[in-house]
Write a structure and sequence with these properties.
A: 268 residues; alpha/beta; Rossmann fold; four-stranded antiparallel beta sheet; 8 helices; disordered C terminus; B: six-stranded mixed barrel; 24 helices; 20 strands; 54% helix; binds adenosine-5'-triphosphate; binds magnesium ion
């Protein structure tokens, strides 16, 4: 199955990379069911750093899982790079996600028996992205990028939580995806470590990646280029911290902040 | 070298779960090794025993004849239907053993030991060209007596004179029943030596290889009849008996081929069972691994692994178990087959030429060792990888408490101590796992008890046979004697309180169409004989008035179709014929076809009124004598009859007959016990593995237990009780299954080794012993998991996620 990279397709309209339309998710429960998302609309632009902020139980994780395709909505649609991801078959979606999305979880979720380097090469292995012989070098390079190359051959339980989160980020970068999605990536870390991780994210944005993170911490959200607030399954407000004058309301299409395609920017 | 990371993950998982992996690997290994052991031993036996047996030109027919010379041999050889023929003289004597006692000896004289046409002997040591006063010994006999080339061999003939012969050769005879089995010494010499020992020079047995259809029993016996009718009888000789050599095997086949093949088949079935049993642990381990790794599976899918890749990974996991299991199984199977083949070689007297493993066995082991684990893992792997990524990562729908009736019952158990309640709930939490563990232990138990039932049944079978040997001692009267004389003589011995003379002859049944049956033994005895206690399976025993009524044994009914209770049959001995009616059928008793008739009417049929051929005596009519008492009676009987010039034969005691007999069965039971032990071992590994998995899955719970102050002892107790509960349930189930399984195994074994029908006896000893064994297995299996449960630190408990 040949999976195209987003950056290789022309599926973007006006620099909009992710488009969420009227998303509704109801979790079946013993009672009536919990309506976790009540019609969410949003757009994410190429190269943007978007933070979705909300209180516990607001529906953040649910929304993120819809965007990564890990869970499917009851109605509505998620388009990424012009592809409606929930219309794909299971394996196709998995492959697509593997190549185009880097996912970072709150609890790192590294495989316990593999070394840090192997945790990263595993991603390339599943998606068959880099030649077998080159994967280790790339993994080391990525670990270098997140600053823990010296621990490459340790297993996750032998390093700290912050270090594990760095590995999780390096793993998310393994297949060089255009989009990184993170659910509470900093929630579990002390403030110094959180700052370091945040800096890492900023570096990624400057390298041309598109970043979407969710957090319940307003302070963290403030540092993103754009913030959306979610409450009780709805986006209630949005604000941009970036210099360009885009005082637009949520859901509006906006021009790309940068006209150079991310691929090319990354190569510069 | 670059290995794709997903395979590395699996290998590292296996390594990080070393103890669990080892259990699975050993469990597979034992199953596969036992199949290899049995199949390979079977092939080695086939090659070395049946192969060398066939090379020595085995006789299809043996004929005992009144004394004859070589010219008769030539006449028989000249017949078109005969390919080869060999004359021999068989003489009974005794030999001085190392302890100064006399052992039974069969002396066999050939015209020339180096030029045997049929049943050729192989030289082991020394030489086969014999001069006067020289003897060659069968190798097992030489070993048994501790004699070698150059030693002196002291023989006592039936005239009580002793002769010293020089042992000049050791030979291997594949065609006779060996010393290990019969406890009889066999020696080979030439007629001149016999002459020197005061014996006339003649032959009394012909071994014949027929020209065509060597393996066709009907044809072979037909040829035998023509030899008798066209050559032997016209030349004035008499046929004593005639038949196919062996223990009921087909002509040209090794004398124990049916028994060996049957026994190997039984072992083979048990081996395959061991393989299947190890499948229980594979299923449980693979399912547990998948449940434990659900989150990892979710992560792997979220980073791009499609289901096919995950399925392949977990199959690779099983494949690794198989390959490692095979790596242990192949050498182990080879060693086992060596042991088993050596065992068989010692038992039936053949040489193991080389110990090797054939490609068929390798293929079989590899196929079984790969297919079984992969096969049983299909379902757990497919269902374990089916979850959606979301469910896998967030672990919804997993680990919920059971809600079946059993769980409700167990939730309501209040009166027991808390650790027991917890153990009980744990035991039944994962039902599929419990089922597989129980299946393994139950089958192992059922087989274990079955082996004991087989033993018990054999014992009863032997006791049944013993009813036909209800004497303390018996003595053959080679030339026959008057009944009254013989009985009076025996009763003069103060220790003897009952003596009866029996007459015996060989005869045939003349069928309606004029054809004749195979030879059978006809016995004339007092209707109220005290030295037989027949087990009637139909009709009645003989009565005083039965002049033309007979009792037959069940063997005869098997041999001759179309006859039964009430049938009239025409018997022929020599050239005299009479018609009798069958009034009773006795159980089989290892004698071959036999007919019992009242002594008087037997005399009329044979025209030897008042003559008897054996004297059977008892010291006490209530009980049998001890071994020593029997020996004393036998000794006195021999002496008195020799002094009275009635017989120079040696007597036989009841304990001597059954001693050898039970030895043989004990050896067979050893092999069966080894197999039962292997099955129990596989069952034990299965239980250990399962309990280990249970402990691991309950890490958090155990942590809570410890956090609320449970002592090490009570944590351990929870695990051990769980093991014991599983053991006990399996024992009950095994007990239920052991009835039919024991019947099947005992039937198969008795049929294989005794060629007799089964009288089945269930072994309650086996049942109780298995209770003890399964108790040990349960406790031992739970010790390691219990220890690891106690060792879990708080950190590990919290890490477990
Ligand atoms: N699988 C589920 N079944 C039922 N209800 C669920 C499920 N997952 C989430 N919910 C409910 O849906 C709502 C949104 O949950 P969600 O996990 O998206 O919130 P969140 O914003 O991520 O909260 P947190 O900051 O605590 O992670 C909550 O009310 C939650 O209880
Ligand atoms: Mg959440």
């Amino acid at each position: 199955m040949e999976i195209a990279k987003i950056s290789d397709t022309n599926g973007r309209e006006n620099g909009t990379l992710i488009k969420v339309k009227d998303l509704v998710k109801v979790y079946p429960t013993a009672a009536n069911g919990v309506e976790a998302l009540k019609g969410v609309n949003l757009e994410v632009h190429e190269g943007e750093f978007l933070a979705i902020f909300g209180k516990s139980g607001a529906g953040k994780s649910t929304l993120i899982n819809m965007i990564t395709g890990i869970d499917s909505p009851d109605s509505g649609e998620v388009q990424i790079g012009g592809v409606s991801i929930h219309s794909m078959g299971d394996d196709e979606l998995t492959r697509w996600r593997g190549r185009n999305l880097g996912v970072v979880y709150q609890f790192f979720q590294l495989l316990p028996t593999l070394t840090l380097a192997e945790n990263i090469t595993l991603v390339m292995d599943f998606c068959d992205t880099y030649p077998l012989a080159k994967r280790s070098d790339r993994a080391l390079q990525l670990l270098d990028q997140v600053g823990i190359r010296e621990h490459a051959y340790k297993v996750p339980s032998k390093i700290s939580g912050g270090q594990q989160q760095r590995v999780a980020i390096a793993r998310a970068l393994a297949n060089d995806p255009d989009v990184i999605v993170a659910d509470e990536p900093i929630g579990n870390l002390d403030s110094q470590t959180a700052d370091d991780i945040y800096d890492l994210f900023s570096d990624l944005v400057s390298l041309g990646k598109t970043l979407v993170i969710v957090t319940h911490d307003r302070e963290i959200a403030e540092r993103a280029s754009r913030i959306l607030e979610i409450s009780d399954g709805r986006i209630i407000s949005g604000r941009s911290n970036d210099a360009p004058s885009n005082e637009r309301s949520t859901g509006e299409a906006a021009p790309s902040p940068n006209l150079v395609p991310p691929r090319i920017r990354a190569a510069i | 070298m670059h290995i794709p990371t997903r395979w590395i993950k699996i290998l590292k998982d296996i390594w990080s779960n070393r103890s669990r992996s080892l259990l699975v690997i050993f469990s597979i290994a034992i199953g596969v090794a036992s199949v290899g052991m049995i199949t390979n031993a079977g092939l080695m036996v086939q090659r070395d025993l049946y192969g060398s047996f066939a090379e020595g030109n085995p006789a299809s027919l043996e004929i005992y004849i009144s004394p004859f010379q070589q010219d008769l041999t030539s006449a028989v050889e000249a017949m078109r239907e005969v390919e080869d023929v060999q004359a021999r003289r068989v003489e009974r004597a005794s030999v001085l053993n190392g302890e100064g006692d006399w052992d039974d000896l069969t002396l066999i004289a050939f015209p020339d030991l180096t030029e045997l046409e049929v049943n050729q002997l192989n030289l082991v040591e020394g030489r086969m060209s014999l001069g006067v006063r020289e003897i060659a010994l069968e190798k097992q006999s030489a070993e048994g007596l501790g004699l070698a080339v150059g030693d002196t061999f002291t023989v006592k003939m039936d005239d009580d004179r002793t002769y010293d012969l020089d042992v000049v050769g050791i030979v291997h005879d594949l065609y006779g029943m060996p010393y290990a089995l019969l406890g009889e010494v066999t020696g080979y010499l030439n007629l001149d030596s016999l002459k020197w020992m005061g014996k006339p020079s003649y032959y009394n047995k012909l071994d014949v290889v027929v020209a065509e259809n060597k393996f066709d029993q009907e044809h072979v016996l037909g040829v035998g009849n023509s030899i008798r009718d066209r050559v032997i009888e016209p030349s004035g000789h008499k046929v004593g008996s005639m038949g196919v050599p062996g223990l009921g095997s087909d002509p040209g086949k090794h004398w124990a081929e049916d028994q060996i093949d049957g026994f190997l088949l039984i072992l083979q079935i048990m081996g395959v069972m061991a393989v299947l049993l190890s499948g229980g642990l594979v299923v449980n381990t693979v399912s547990a691994t998948l449940v434990q790794q659900i989150k990892q599976i979710g992560i792997m899918r979220s980073i791009g692994a499609v289901r096919g890749q995950l399925i392949a990974m977990y199959f690779f996991n099983v494949l690794a178990y198989s390959v490692l299991g095979l790596a242990v199984a192949l050498p182990l199977g080879l060693l086992g087959s060596w042991w088993l083949a050596e065992f068989a070689a010692g038992f039936v007297n053949f040489d193991l030429t080389t110990v090797n493993i054939s490609w068929q066995v390798l293929t079989l082991q590899i196929t079984l060792g790969l297919l079984m684990p992969l096969g049983v893992a299909i379902y757990p792997i497919l269902s374990g990888t089916r979850m959606s990524v979301y469910d896998a990562i967030y672990q919804y729908g997993i680990g919920s408490e059971g809600s079946g009736w059993l769980d409700r019952v167990l939730m309501n158990v209040r009166n027991l101590a808390p650790p027991i309640v917890l153990s009980l709930r744990n035991t039944f939490r994962n039902k599929a796992r419990l089922v597989f563990t129980l299946l393994t232990l139950t089958l192992a138990g059922a087989m274990f008890i079955a082996v004991f039932s087989t033993r018990a049944s054999l014992t009863v079978q032997i006791e049944n046979v013993a009813r036909y040997v209800a004497f303390d001692a018996a003595l053959g009267l080679p030339y026959g004697s008057r009944k009254q004389t013989v009985e009076r003589e025996a009763l003069r011995i103060p220790e003897i309180s009952a003596a009866e003379g029996w007459a015996q002859s060989i005869g045939v049944i003349v069928r309606e169409d004029g054809s004749e049956s195979g030879e059978l033994e006809i016995v004339g005895l007092p209707y109220d004989a005290a030295t037989i206690d027949p087990l009637m399976i139909e009709g009645r025993w003989l009565e005083a008035s039965d002049t033309s009524k007979i009792v037959v044994n069940d063997d005869l009914l098997d041999e001759e179709s179309g006859i039964g209770i009430g049938s009239e049959i025409r018997l022929k001995i020599g050239n005299r014929e009479r018609t009798y009616q069958i009034v009773g059928v006795t159980s089989k008793h290892l004698s071959g076809s036999r007919i019992y008739m009242e002594y008087g009417s037997f005399g009329q049929l044979t025209n030897r009124p008042n003559q008897v051929d054996t004297i059977r005596v008892r010291g006490n009519l209530e009980t049998f004598g001890s071994n020593v008492e029997q020996d004393v009676i036998a000794f006195q009987l021999e002496n008195r009859f020799e002094n009275a010039n009635l017989s120079k034969s040696s007597s036989i005691t009841r304990h001597a007959i059954f001693g050898d007999f039970t030895d043989v069965f004990d050896l067979i039971l050893v092999v069966l016990m080894v197999m039962a032990g292997l099955l129990a071992l596989v069952g034990g590994l299965g239980l250990t593995g399962t309990l280990g998995i249970n402990v691991l899955e309950r890490t958090r719970e155990i942590g809570v237990l410890r956090a609320v102050g449970a002592s090490n002892v009570s944590v351990r107790q929870v695990i051990v009780i769980e093991g014991v509960v599983v053991g006990l349930i399996s024992w009950v189930l095994g007990a239920l299954l052991s009835g039919p399984s024991g019947r099947a195994l005992a039937g198969a074994v008795i049929n294989a080794v005794m060629q007799a029908d089964l009288s089945y006896t269930y072994s309650f000893t086996g049942l109780l012993l298995w209770l003890v064994v399964v108790g040990f297995i349960a406790v031992f299996s739970s010790l390691a998991p219990a220890r690891s449960a106690v060792r879990l630190t708080v950190r590990e408990v919290l890490d477990y996620e």
